[in-house]
Specification:
The protein has helices at about 10-45, 50-115, 140-160, 170-175, 190-210, 220-240, 245-250, 255-265, 280-320, 330-355, and strands at about 125, 130-135. The protein is mainly α. Strands 1-2 form a two-stranded antiparallel ribbon. Helix 8 packs antiparallel against helix 9. The protein contains 10 helices and 2 strands; from the N terminus they run ααββαααααααα. The protein is elongated. It has 2 domains: about 10-115; about 120-355, no CATH class.
Protein backbone atom coordinates (compact mmCIF):
# COMPACT_ATOMS: atom_id res chain seq x y z
CA UNK A 1 0.00 0.00 0.00
CA UNK A 2 1.50 3.40 -0.93
CA UNK A 3 2.27 5.90 1.77
CA UNK A 4 0.34 9.11 1.11
CA UNK A 5 1.19 10.91 4.36
CA UNK A 6 3.89 13.04 2.75
CA UNK A 7 2.22 13.93 -0.52
CA UNK A 8 2.58 11.92 -3.70
CA UNK A 9 3.92 8.94 -1.78
CA UNK A 10 7.45 10.43 -1.67
CA UNK A 11 9.75 10.20 1.35
CA UNK A 12 10.61 13.75 2.63
CA UNK A 13 14.22 12.93 3.47
CA UNK A 14 14.78 11.31 0.10
CA UNK A 15 13.19 14.27 -1.75
CA UNK A 16 15.40 16.78 0.06
CA UNK A 17 18.41 14.62 -0.69
CA UNK A 18 17.62 14.54 -4.44
CA UNK A 19 17.12 18.33 -4.61
CA UNK A 20 20.57 18.91 -3.09
CA UNK A 21 22.15 16.52 -5.58
CA UNK A 22 20.46 18.36 -8.46
CA UNK A 23 21.78 21.71 -7.24
CA UNK A 24 25.30 20.38 -6.98
CA UNK A 25 25.08 18.79 -10.46
CA UNK A 26 23.87 22.03 -12.07
CA UNK A 27 26.60 24.06 -10.39
CA UNK A 28 29.24 21.57 -11.50
CA UNK A 29 27.99 21.70 -15.11
CA UNK A 30 28.17 25.49 -15.13
CA UNK A 31 31.68 25.41 -13.70
CA UNK A 32 32.85 22.91 -16.36
CA UNK A 33 31.28 24.98 -19.18
CA UNK A 34 32.98 28.13 -17.90
CA UNK A 35 36.32 26.34 -17.68
CA UNK A 36 35.98 24.95 -21.24
CA UNK A 37 35.12 28.39 -22.60
CA UNK A 38 38.12 29.90 -20.90
CA UNK A 39 40.34 27.11 -22.18
CA UNK A 40 39.23 27.55 -25.83
CA UNK A 41 39.64 31.29 -25.66
CA UNK A 42 43.16 31.11 -24.28
CA UNK A 43 44.14 28.54 -26.93
CA UNK A 44 43.12 30.88 -29.74
CA UNK A 45 45.57 33.51 -28.54
CA UNK A 46 43.27 36.39 -29.56
CA UNK A 47 42.31 37.55 -26.05
CA UNK A 48 43.73 40.51 -24.24
CA UNK A 49 44.53 40.60 -20.52
CA UNK A 50 41.13 42.04 -19.56
CA UNK A 51 39.17 39.35 -21.39
CA UNK A 52 41.26 36.55 -19.84
CA UNK A 53 40.64 38.02 -16.39
CA UNK A 54 36.88 38.05 -17.00
CA UNK A 55 36.84 34.40 -18.11
CA UNK A 56 38.90 33.20 -15.16
CA UNK A 57 36.70 35.21 -12.80
CA UNK A 58 33.66 33.44 -14.24
CA UNK A 59 35.32 30.02 -13.74
CA UNK A 60 36.18 30.96 -10.14
CA UNK A 61 32.62 32.10 -9.43
CA UNK A 62 31.09 28.90 -10.80
CA UNK A 63 33.61 26.76 -8.87
CA UNK A 64 32.72 28.58 -5.65
CA UNK A 65 29.06 27.86 -6.36
CA UNK A 66 29.88 24.15 -6.57
CA UNK A 67 31.81 24.34 -3.27
CA UNK A 68 28.95 26.18 -1.53
CA UNK A 69 26.41 23.62 -2.73
CA UNK A 70 28.61 20.74 -1.55
CA UNK A 71 29.08 22.33 1.91
CA UNK A 72 25.35 22.92 2.32
CA UNK A 73 24.62 19.38 1.25
CA UNK A 74 27.20 17.99 3.71
CA UNK A 75 25.78 19.93 6.68
CA UNK A 76 22.22 18.94 5.85
CA UNK A 77 23.16 15.28 5.52
CA UNK A 78 24.98 15.36 8.86
CA UNK A 79 21.96 16.86 10.61
CA UNK A 80 19.65 14.36 8.99
CA UNK A 81 21.97 11.45 9.78
CA UNK A 82 22.26 12.44 13.44
CA UNK A 83 18.50 12.90 13.81
CA UNK A 84 17.83 9.55 12.16
CA UNK A 85 20.47 7.88 14.32
CA UNK A 86 19.12 9.25 17.60
CA UNK A 87 15.55 8.44 16.60
CA UNK A 88 16.50 4.90 15.70
CA UNK A 89 18.57 4.27 18.83
CA UNK A 90 16.54 6.37 21.28
CA UNK A 91 14.69 3.46 22.85
CA UNK A 92 17.79 1.24 22.91
CA UNK A 93 19.87 3.98 24.59
CA UNK A 94 17.16 4.70 27.14
CA UNK A 95 16.96 1.02 28.09
CA UNK A 96 20.75 0.81 28.29
CA UNK A 97 20.90 3.79 30.66
CA UNK A 98 18.20 2.26 32.83
CA UNK A 99 20.12 -1.00 32.98
CA UNK A 100 23.31 0.84 33.97
CA UNK A 101 21.50 2.79 36.72
CA UNK A 102 19.91 -0.38 38.11
CA UNK A 103 23.26 -2.15 38.05
CA UNK A 104 24.87 0.78 39.89
CA UNK A 105 22.18 0.72 42.58
CA UNK A 106 22.55 -3.02 43.05
CA UNK A 107 26.35 -2.66 43.28
CA UNK A 108 25.99 0.09 45.88
CA UNK A 109 23.61 -2.03 47.95
CA UNK A 110 25.99 -4.99 47.80
CA UNK A 111 28.89 -2.74 48.84
CA UNK A 112 26.96 -1.33 51.78
CA UNK A 113 25.92 -4.79 52.91
CA UNK A 114 29.52 -6.00 52.77
CA UNK A 115 30.99 -2.91 54.49
CA UNK A 116 32.62 -3.78 57.78
CA UNK A 117 31.79 -2.11 61.07
CA UNK A 118 33.52 -2.26 64.43
CA UNK A 119 30.29 -3.73 65.82
CA UNK A 120 30.78 -6.86 63.70
CA UNK A 121 34.01 -7.60 65.59
CA UNK A 122 32.08 -8.14 68.82
CA UNK A 123 28.47 -9.01 67.97
CA UNK A 124 26.68 -11.56 65.83
CA UNK A 125 25.24 -9.50 62.94
CA UNK A 126 23.12 -10.92 60.12
CA UNK A 127 22.88 -9.63 56.53
CA UNK A 128 20.16 -7.13 57.52
CA UNK A 129 22.52 -5.77 60.23
CA UNK A 130 20.36 -7.15 63.04
CA UNK A 131 22.15 -7.97 66.28
CA UNK A 132 21.51 -11.59 67.17
CA UNK A 133 23.52 -11.62 70.38
CA UNK A 134 27.16 -12.06 71.44
CA UNK A 135 29.47 -13.24 68.69
CA UNK A 136 30.53 -16.87 68.78
CA UNK A 137 34.31 -16.77 68.37
CA UNK A 138 35.87 -19.20 65.92
CA UNK A 139 39.26 -20.69 66.84
CA UNK A 140 41.87 -18.00 66.17
CA UNK A 141 45.14 -18.17 68.10
CA UNK A 142 46.34 -14.78 66.80
CA UNK A 143 43.14 -13.07 67.93
CA UNK A 144 43.26 -14.72 71.35
CA UNK A 145 46.90 -13.72 71.89
CA UNK A 146 46.10 -10.18 70.82
CA UNK A 147 43.10 -10.00 73.15
CA UNK A 148 45.09 -11.26 76.14
CA UNK A 149 47.88 -8.80 75.32
CA UNK A 150 45.38 -5.93 75.40
CA UNK A 151 43.73 -7.13 78.59
CA UNK A 152 47.12 -7.19 80.32
CA UNK A 153 48.83 -4.20 78.68
CA UNK A 154 45.91 -1.82 79.13
CA UNK A 155 45.85 -2.29 82.92
CA UNK A 156 49.12 -0.36 83.61
CA UNK A 157 48.09 2.26 81.05
CA UNK A 158 44.78 2.86 82.84
CA UNK A 159 46.27 2.72 86.35
CA UNK A 160 49.15 5.09 85.55
CA UNK A 161 46.68 7.46 83.95
CA UNK A 162 44.45 7.52 87.03
CA UNK A 163 47.40 8.11 89.37
CA UNK A 164 48.02 11.44 87.63
CA UNK A 165 44.57 12.78 88.57
CA UNK A 166 43.09 14.02 91.84
CA UNK A 167 40.69 11.15 92.35
CA UNK A 168 38.69 12.55 95.28
CA UNK A 169 35.04 13.34 95.77
CA UNK A 170 35.87 16.95 96.64
CA UNK A 171 37.84 17.45 93.45
CA UNK A 172 35.05 16.13 91.23
CA UNK A 173 32.47 18.19 93.13
CA UNK A 174 34.53 21.34 92.53
CA UNK A 175 34.79 20.43 88.85
CA UNK A 176 31.02 20.09 88.46
CA UNK A 177 30.44 23.35 90.37
CA UNK A 178 32.89 25.13 88.10
CA UNK A 179 35.32 25.98 90.90
CA UNK A 180 38.19 24.34 89.02
CA UNK A 181 38.65 23.32 85.40
CA UNK A 182 39.55 19.90 84.06
CA UNK A 183 43.30 20.71 83.91
CA UNK A 184 43.04 21.59 87.61
CA UNK A 185 42.45 17.90 88.42
CA UNK A 186 45.71 16.89 86.75
CA UNK A 187 48.78 16.43 88.97
CA UNK A 188 51.17 14.90 86.41
CA UNK A 189 53.30 13.23 89.13
CA UNK A 190 53.87 10.13 86.98
CA UNK A 191 53.42 11.66 83.55
CA UNK A 192 56.79 10.52 82.15
CA UNK A 193 56.15 6.88 83.09
CA UNK A 194 52.57 7.12 81.88
CA UNK A 195 53.64 8.57 78.50
CA UNK A 196 56.27 5.94 77.75
CA UNK A 197 53.97 3.09 78.84
CA UNK A 198 51.24 4.39 76.54
CA UNK A 199 53.67 4.91 73.67
CA UNK A 200 55.06 1.36 73.94
CA UNK A 201 51.54 -0.08 74.15
CA UNK A 202 50.43 1.53 70.87
CA UNK A 203 53.67 0.62 69.11
CA UNK A 204 53.35 -3.01 70.25
CA UNK A 205 49.71 -3.11 69.17
CA UNK A 206 50.69 -1.72 65.77
CA UNK A 207 53.15 -4.59 65.42
CA UNK A 208 50.24 -7.00 65.88
CA UNK A 209 48.36 -5.26 63.05
CA UNK A 210 51.38 -5.38 60.76
CA UNK A 211 52.62 -8.91 61.36
CA UNK A 212 49.33 -10.59 62.39
CA UNK A 213 46.60 -8.58 60.62
CA UNK A 214 44.10 -11.44 60.96
CA UNK A 215 44.12 -11.00 64.74
CA UNK A 216 41.31 -8.47 64.19
CA UNK A 217 38.62 -8.15 61.55
CA UNK A 218 39.35 -4.52 60.64
CA UNK A 219 43.13 -4.00 60.89
CA UNK A 220 43.10 -0.98 58.57
CA UNK A 221 40.77 1.02 60.83
CA UNK A 222 42.80 0.20 63.94
CA UNK A 223 46.11 1.08 62.26
CA UNK A 224 44.77 4.51 61.27
CA UNK A 225 43.38 5.03 64.77
CA UNK A 226 46.70 4.13 66.41
CA UNK A 227 48.74 6.35 64.08
CA UNK A 228 46.49 9.33 64.84
CA UNK A 229 46.73 8.57 68.56
CA UNK A 230 50.53 8.38 68.44
CA UNK A 231 50.62 11.76 66.74
CA UNK A 232 48.20 13.08 69.34
CA UNK A 233 50.26 12.04 72.37
CA UNK A 234 53.37 13.79 71.02
CA UNK A 235 51.69 17.14 71.71
CA UNK A 236 51.99 16.74 75.53
CA UNK A 237 55.42 15.18 75.04
CA UNK A 238 56.58 18.43 73.43
CA UNK A 239 54.44 20.59 75.74
CA UNK A 240 54.27 18.80 79.14
CA UNK A 241 51.80 21.38 80.45
CA UNK A 242 49.20 19.60 78.30
CA UNK A 243 49.73 16.20 79.88
CA UNK A 244 46.17 16.46 81.19
CA UNK A 245 44.94 16.39 77.58
CA UNK A 246 46.57 13.04 76.94
CA UNK A 247 45.30 11.68 80.26
CA UNK A 248 41.76 12.82 79.53
CA UNK A 249 41.74 11.23 76.08
CA UNK A 250 43.24 7.97 77.33
CA UNK A 251 40.38 7.47 79.80
CA UNK A 252 38.58 5.87 76.87
CA UNK A 253 40.85 2.84 77.29
CA UNK A 254 38.66 1.86 80.25
CA UNK A 255 35.88 1.23 77.77
CA UNK A 256 38.30 -0.48 75.40
CA UNK A 257 39.24 -2.94 78.14
CA UNK A 258 35.59 -3.87 78.78
CA UNK A 259 34.99 -4.11 75.04
CA UNK A 260 37.75 -6.70 74.67
CA UNK A 261 36.85 -8.45 77.92
CA UNK A 262 33.25 -8.78 76.77
CA UNK A 263 34.41 -10.76 73.76
CA UNK A 264 37.31 -12.62 75.33
CA UNK A 265 35.33 -13.82 78.37
CA UNK A 266 32.47 -15.12 76.24
CA UNK A 267 33.93 -16.96 73.26
CA UNK A 268 30.90 -19.23 73.03
CA UNK A 269 28.52 -16.34 72.60
CA UNK A 270 26.41 -17.29 75.65
CA UNK A 271 23.51 -15.10 76.74
CA UNK A 272 23.04 -14.39 80.45
CA UNK A 273 20.42 -16.44 82.30
CA UNK A 274 19.70 -18.66 79.32
CA UNK A 275 19.35 -22.47 79.63
CA UNK A 276 22.76 -24.09 80.05
CA UNK A 277 24.42 -20.90 81.34
CA UNK A 278 25.28 -21.01 85.04
CA UNK A 279 24.25 -18.26 87.44
CA UNK A 280 27.89 -17.32 88.09
CA UNK A 281 28.67 -17.07 84.39
CA UNK A 282 25.49 -15.08 83.79
CA UNK A 283 26.35 -12.61 86.53
CA UNK A 284 29.88 -12.17 85.19
CA UNK A 285 28.68 -11.66 81.63
CA UNK A 286 26.03 -9.20 82.78
CA UNK A 287 28.53 -7.21 84.87
CA UNK A 288 31.09 -6.92 82.08
CA UNK A 289 28.39 -6.05 79.54
CA UNK A 290 26.88 -3.40 81.82
CA UNK A 291 30.30 -1.82 82.44
CA UNK A 292 30.90 -1.82 78.72
CA UNK A 293 27.66 -0.01 77.88
CA UNK A 294 27.93 2.49 80.73
CA UNK A 295 31.55 3.38 79.96
CA UNK A 296 30.76 3.59 76.24
CA UNK A 297 28.01 6.18 76.60
CA UNK A 298 29.59 8.11 79.48
CA UNK A 299 33.09 8.38 77.98
CA UNK A 300 32.64 8.22 74.22
CA UNK A 301 29.37 10.16 73.91
CA UNK A 302 29.47 12.34 77.02
CA UNK A 303 33.03 13.04 78.08
CA UNK A 304 34.64 13.29 74.62
CA UNK A 305 32.36 16.11 73.33
CA UNK A 306 32.88 17.94 76.65
CA UNK A 307 36.62 17.47 76.23
CA UNK A 308 36.44 19.05 72.76
CA UNK A 309 35.12 22.26 74.34
CA UNK A 310 37.98 22.27 76.87
CA UNK A 311 40.51 21.66 74.08
CA UNK A 312 39.16 24.56 72.01
CA UNK A 313 39.36 26.87 75.01
CA UNK A 314 42.92 25.75 75.72
CA UNK A 315 43.91 26.36 72.09
CA UNK A 316 42.40 29.86 72.29
CA UNK A 317 44.37 30.69 75.45
CA UNK A 318 47.59 29.27 74.03
CA UNK A 319 47.11 31.24 70.80
CA UNK A 320 46.90 34.42 72.86
CA UNK A 321 50.14 33.51 74.62
CA UNK A 322 52.17 32.78 71.50
CA UNK A 323 50.53 35.45 69.37
CA UNK A 324 49.31 33.20 66.53
CA UNK A 325 46.41 30.86 65.93
CA UNK A 326 48.62 28.48 63.92
CA UNK A 327 50.42 26.64 66.69
CA UNK A 328 51.01 23.09 67.87
CA UNK A 329 47.75 22.98 69.86
CA UNK A 330 45.73 23.69 66.72
CA UNK A 331 45.92 20.03 65.65
CA UNK A 332 44.27 18.80 68.86
CA UNK A 333 40.69 20.01 68.13
CA UNK A 334 40.77 18.38 64.70
CA UNK A 335 42.06 15.08 66.09
CA UNK A 336 39.41 15.18 68.80
CA UNK A 337 36.72 15.72 66.16
CA UNK A 338 37.99 12.62 64.32
CA UNK A 339 37.64 10.54 67.49
CA UNK A 340 34.16 11.94 68.17
CA UNK A 341 33.11 11.13 64.61
CA UNK A 342 34.31 7.53 64.97
CA UNK A 343 32.53 7.20 68.32
CA UNK A 344 29.29 8.48 66.81
CA UNK A 345 29.56 6.14 63.82
CA UNK A 346 30.19 3.12 66.02
CA UNK A 347 27.35 4.15 68.33
CA UNK A 348 24.94 4.47 65.41
CA UNK A 349 26.02 1.03 64.20
CA UNK A 350 25.51 -0.35 67.71
CA UNK A 351 22.04 1.16 68.17
CA UNK A 352 20.93 0.29 64.64
CA UNK A 353 21.89 -3.35 65.06
CA UNK A 354 20.30 -3.52 68.53
CA UNK A 355 17.02 -2.01 67.33
CA UNK A 356 16.85 -4.28 64.29
CA UNK A 357 17.63 -7.34 66.37
CA UNK A 358 15.23 -6.53 69.18
CA UNK A 359 12.66 -8.94 67.86
CA UNK A 360 15.12 -11.81 67.47
CA UNK A 361 17.23 -11.31 70.54
CA UNK A 362 17.12 -9.11 73.61
CA UNK A 363 20.35 -10.28 75.19
CA UNK A 364 23.12 -7.79 75.89
Amino acid sequence: MPDNDHGGGGHPVLSRSNSFEDEVLEAACRAVSAAEEAHRATQSGKLNQKEVSCLTANVLAESRAVLTALQASSKTRKRQSFAEFTTMLGEEMEQEVRDMVNEGIEYGERTLRKAKSLIEDHFNIDEAFRMLGPLHQDPNVARDVHDYFNLVALIPVVILNLTNWKMTYTSFAELFRGVISLPGLWTGHYFGLFWWTTFMYFVADLMFMIFLPHCVRSPGVIVKHHLVTLGYIFVPKLRPRYGWLMGACMIVEVNTWFLIARRSFNKKGDKPFMPGVSLTTSARLLLVSACFYVSWFVIRLGFYPYLLIQICLEWWRYSYEVGTYFNIILITPFMQIVFIFLNLKWTIDLLRSKLKGRGASKGL
